[in-house]
Amino acid sequence: MSDLEVILREVEKPGRYTGGEWNSVVKDWASTPVKVALAYPDTYEIGMSNLGLMILYDILNRQPDILCERVYAPWLDMEARLREARLPLYSLETGHALTDFDIVGISLPYELNYTNALTILSLGGLAPLAAERRAEDPLVIAGGSGAYNPEPMAAFFDLFVIGEGEEVLLELVRLYADWKRSGGATGPRPKADFLRQAARIGGIYVPSFYAAEYDAEGRVKRTVPLVPEAPARVVKRVVPALPPPPTRLIVPYIQAVHDRAMLEIQRGCTQGCRFCQASTIYRPVRERTVDEIVRAADEMLLATGHEEISLVSLSSSDHSHIEEVVRALAERCAPKGVSISLPSLRADAFSVRLAEMVQTTRKTGLTFAPEAGSQRLRDAINKKVSEEDLLRTAEAAFSTGWNRIKLYFMVGQPTETDEDVEAIVDLVKKVVAVGRRYRGGRAQVSVSVATFVPKPHTPFQWEPLVDDETLRRRLEILRRGLRVKGVEFSWHDPGTTLLEAALSRGDRRVADVIYRAWQLGARFDAWGDAYRPEAWEQAWRECGLSPEFYGRRPRDRDEALPWDHIDIGVRKEFLWREAERCRAAMPTPDCREGCVGCGVNAALPLAGGTALCP
User: Fold this and answer.
1) Residue 20: exposure state from Cβ atoms within 10 A (0-12, 13-18, ≥19)
2) What is residue 341's predicted lDDT score, i.e. its pLDDT?
3) Closest C-alpha to 204, from 165, 174, 152
4) Angle CA(192)–CA(198)–CA(200) in degrees, nearest 5?
């Protein structure tokens, strides 16, 4: 029995580490010229629910001269056992160490995964710091929403992909393949030569080609390119039309967080909620046609055997033909016993009608996100939902057979007062009353509350994180007020909120803190049972930096931001205008009702000047 077999008998959930799943792709290692490992910095169960990684895996493996394999962050027990046995972290398809690959790509979906990325590199046999890696080591790249402020992780990656991987990844890998064929990897041409060529590709950010300057107060003055190939601003890449979705999705052997077939029906969102980073970085909206969705669903179900298909998007009910999509899929899926889920719905009666169309048997529950309790605050954050909308939605749901509704709210949003939080209590009680009118004692309302964290590239990027005292007081208002029969109240642990805010808006110096915290044992910081606040406190202290400086300090309009050199197409002036409209509690219309002037059409035009927006 090998050392690895012994380890797999001893760790929790060994199915995380065995590979061999249905639809995974195993190519001949020796005869495939270019080898790419795609890594996700969280557990297998979460990583297998990430559609972005599945899309890139499919695109790369469709190329005859490229193989792509997967790596996920090992849980604490597996990391410890691999280190004890001096075994490297390996890919699931063929068991190769990361050092055997040409390119290692790590997705950065969330700031509290950052330390796991360092674990993946270290355990794979690579120095976490890019400057300490050897010439023969793989090219280490990053992408995902975390790449839109790459600075806190700049020290760990050779380059970042800004924008949509479908658009730029093959271009980058082809360039690498040419460089490797010409002897770049082993010959006299150093990796810096390749990086200079890569920096010329739109959407590629090579952090070692830039320098950050700071003023006397420690604020960023500017980030400047150091070589001619590095553009002053790196413009994100977008696909003008969504390519065909992957349909041969890998079917995990153990239960993933989302154990179903995921089909992206549109990308982007026109609602413009001011707190939402996805709403700005994934602009513009692009939809798949009804025929394409139905065809892909058929192929997906045939290839996977899943009994549920999820129509993925930031706001599914906004798809311009969603009713047609749902009707067509329901007709095909119902006879096969396949259910359809719509995970992201607006709070309106139309959404309830959609849910009614797909849930003809067991009515499990409906989820809506009013985000705020008062109309004033909903207008301030541009959440286009009125109390009447929500109560009509509740009435439509409870009157047609649903017993349970889940509501998402946030606290700590800009301009929020205690009265706004008390309005959440009032609103929930009204929803409960509607439920009791139709479902009696069976009516349940689940209330989930998160703390607002300001994110880069949003109208709230200049806003401070709420202070601890205010946050505790507002959560107590909710705890007291929601002790109501039929209400289940939960809230996200605010302990990691400051860390998330600091990493989210951090600059290049924060990399030292991340590295030190990781050395001190920080892992899986989003997991309550793994989070080690003492490691982070020591790291901030030793590095002479403060999380409050990054998380709780309001920014002036004219202050340079660490991510100003990353261009998502949305103008900074538009974001500031939206911040001012927040302070005046003025909503901005949905983009589908008319252009709101964010700038995407001018910044990211198609060839010939065709507009991307609806």
Assistant:
1) exposed
2) 85
3) 165
4) 115
Could you tell me which of 55, 607, 608, 590 has the C-alpha nearest to residue 283? 590
List pLDDT tens digits, range 44-82: 999 999 999 999 999 999 999 999 999 999 999 999 999
Bin 287: left if φ > 0, else alpha if -120 < ψ < 50, else beta: beta
Residues 6+ apart with CB under 8 A from 505: 149, 454, 455, 456, 461, 550, 551, 561, 562
Residue 607 has pLDDT above 50, yes or no: no
Instruction: In whole angstroms, give the CA distance from residue 148 to residue 79.
Output: 29
Q: What is the mean pLDDT of residues 339-353?
A: 80
575 or 318, higher pLDDT: 575
CA-closest candidate to residue 381, choices 106, 578, 183, 515: 578
Summarised one tens digit per residue, pLDDT across range 10-48 is 999 999 999 999 999 999 999 999 999 999 999 999 999
Q: Give CA–CA dist 362/595, Å, rounded.
A: 41
Residue 611 pLDDT grade (very low, low, confident, very high; cuts 50, 70, 90): low
CA angle 461, 241, 277 (to 5 degrees): 10
Confidence of residue 350 (pLDDT cuts 50, 70, 90): confident
HEC assignment per residue over 173-188: HHHHHHHHHCCCCCCC
Helix%, strand%, coil% for the chain, nearest 5: 40, 15, 45
Three-class DSSP category at 484: coil
Task: Measure the CA–CA gap between 570 and 568, rounded to whole angstroms.
Answer: 6
Distance CA 109, CA 52 (A): 10
Closest listed residue to residue 568, CA positions, set 90, 237, 251, 227: 237
Q: What is the pLDDT of residue 407?
A: 95
SS3 149: coil
Pairing of strands 487-491, 566-567: unpaired
Q: Is the peptide bond before 245 cis (omega within 30 degrees of 0)?
A: no
pLDDT band at 181 (very low <50, low <70, confident <90, very high): confident
What does the mean pLDDT of the chain come to?
93
Q: In sequence order, what DSSP letters do the residues of 408-458 get, joined into one string?
A: EEEES-TT--HHHHHHHHHHHHHHHHHHHHHHGGG-EEEEEEEE----TTS
Write the single-letter amino acid at 463: E
Among residues 291, 287, 294, the alpha carbon closest in space to that of 268 is found at 287
121 in Cβ contact with 128 (< 8 Å):
yes
What are residue 90's DSSP bridge partners? 97
AA letter at 20: G
| Residues 205/160, Cβ–Cβ less than 8 Å | yes
Amino acid at site 446: S
pTM over 0.70: yes
3-state secondary structure of 282: coil
Q: Which residue has the tokens 């927040």?
A: 582
User: Helix (H, G, I), strand (E, B), or coil: what is residue 169?
Assistant: helix
Position 608 pLDDT exceeds 50: no
Rg (CA), the chain: 24
274 and 582 Cβ atoms separated by less than 8 Å: yes
Of the CA atoms within 13 Å of residue 159, those in its CB half-sphere come to 29
170 Cβ neighbours under 8 A, 6+ residues apart: 59, 60, 63
